[in-house]
Please model this.
Amino acid sequence: MVLREMRTRNYSQRSITTYVHMLQKLEEYFATSVDEISIEQVKDFLQYSIEKKKVSVSFINQVISAVKLLQHDILGKSWETIRIRRPRMDKRLPIVLSKEEIKSMIETTRNLKHQTLLALTYSAGLRISEVIGLKPSDIDSDRKQIRVLGKGNKYRYTLLSENTLEMLRTYWRAYRPVRYLFEGQKKGQPFSRTSINKVFKQTCKRAGIKKEATVHSLRHSFATHLLESGVNLKIIQGLLGHSSLRTTSIYLHVTRFDPASIKSPFDEITW
Model:
């Protein structure tokens, strides 16, 4: 029932897997069918998960979203009468790597596939799921852009840098991927999320990077560096695929501006 509804609504496979997993956890905890579990029971489960299991805010929100899909969208209950208050997310600033650190990562990576994957992720501002899903046909070398399938199965276009394009050409000649741009050990199968995280961690260690960075930090760095270069926030929003400018505006808090380099509009007036 839930699977059919999510597929009809064109949910991503990752979202489907997450929601089904959360509903299964509820069924296992109460030893009953999920459609028979009350909202009060759901709240009890969430309280238990927070106090005993020390789960993350993300976990809690995933459970609530899964329950809302079932109770409201499938069973037709009024969400206003069964609403569960979501916990507030910690306002953590993104971890940003400097351009020198990015350069060091690329230079210390000896494997051509790994080097190209990391360079593309940074230079195009991609999520890990997006780089995994890229196909060779998504690379438009003539128009210098990349077609990306992002959140909510929405397509967007982002940058294809000259340096990355040259790396991609070298990579293509060496690997000749069949279906996905970056494939695992099996031809036609995408490079796994686990493998990318492992490659990133090893690369940071070799490059001497001590920050608690993740693959997603490459995306944060892309956005921050564009903003520091003077690119309009609205344009960055489009490149990142953010539905809200508010999400993109977090990079304003980590951007380093040199006041001396900013010219007052008053100085542009001719007297």
Observations:
- Residues 101 and 209 are 7 Å apart (CA to CA).
- The longest strand covers residues 145-149.
- The beta strands are 139-140, 145-149, 155-159.
